[in-house]
Amino acid sequence: MSRTQKILIGVLAIIILIQFIRPAKNISVAATPNDIFEHYQAPDTLKQLIKTACYDCHSNNTVYPWYSNIQPVAWWLNDHVEEGKSKLNFSEFATYTAKKGDHKLEEVMEEVKEGNMPLKSYTLIHTKTKLNTSQREAIVQWAMQTRKQIQPNIQ
């Protein structure tokens, strides 16, 4: 067996072995009493828009595509989701202080308005998450109104 064949067999073995090392999935079946929409109102269409465009990375419940079962893609997706949740988790929004919640919604407004969210890399594959101008404006207006509800509670 040549050196090249040994290397190829070794790489193939590694690829097969890493398929068994899987990160935990971000799937919650429990009720989410701290979810932002349990505490702040929004029209159903806007709730659905935000859940479609934002919740995969910014909540406790990700809808995983088929390719999330392939390593190392699953590791990359897990890292992406964990990073997104660390910056903003709509499922845990009620646990934030008023000041932090206000700041998070200010960031939502900036990121959505500037077109940074949802990420381009995400919308390439998840085309239903692409936001048009009116959808962006609706999210920004909702965030602004929600901030007005939060701001009196800032100490």
Helices, strands, pairings?
Layout: H1 3-18, H2 36-39, H3 44-54, H4 73-87, H5 98-113, H6 120-125, H7 133-150
Helix pairs in contact: 5-7
Detailed description of the structure:
The chain has about 160 residues and is mainly alpha-helical. The chain has one domain (about 25-155). The protein contains 7 helices and no strands. The chain has helices spanning about 5-20, 35-40, 45-55, 75-85, 100-115, 120-125, 135-150. Helix 5 (about 100-115) runs antiparallel to helix 7. It starts with a helix and ends in a 5-residue tail after the last helix. The relative contact order is 0.14. The mean pLDDT is about 90.
Tally the structural domains. 1
Mean of pLDDT: 91
Structural class: mainly alpha
Largest sheet, in brief, is: none
- Outline type: elongated
Number of strands: 0
User: What Rg is obtained from the alpha carbons, in whole angstroms?
Assistant: 20 Å
Order of helices and strands: HHHHHHH
The percent of residues in helical segments reads 55-70%
Q: Segments where pLDDT lies below 50 for 5+ residues? A: none
What is the beta-strand fraction? Answer: under 5%
Number of helices: 7
For the record, give the distance between the C-alpha atoms at the N and C termini, rounded to a whole number.
Answer: 72 Å
Quick synopsis:
With 155 residues, this protein is mainly α. The protein has one domain (25-153). 55% of the residues lie in helices and 0% in strands.
State the main characteristics.
single chain, mainly alpha, 7 helices, 55% helix
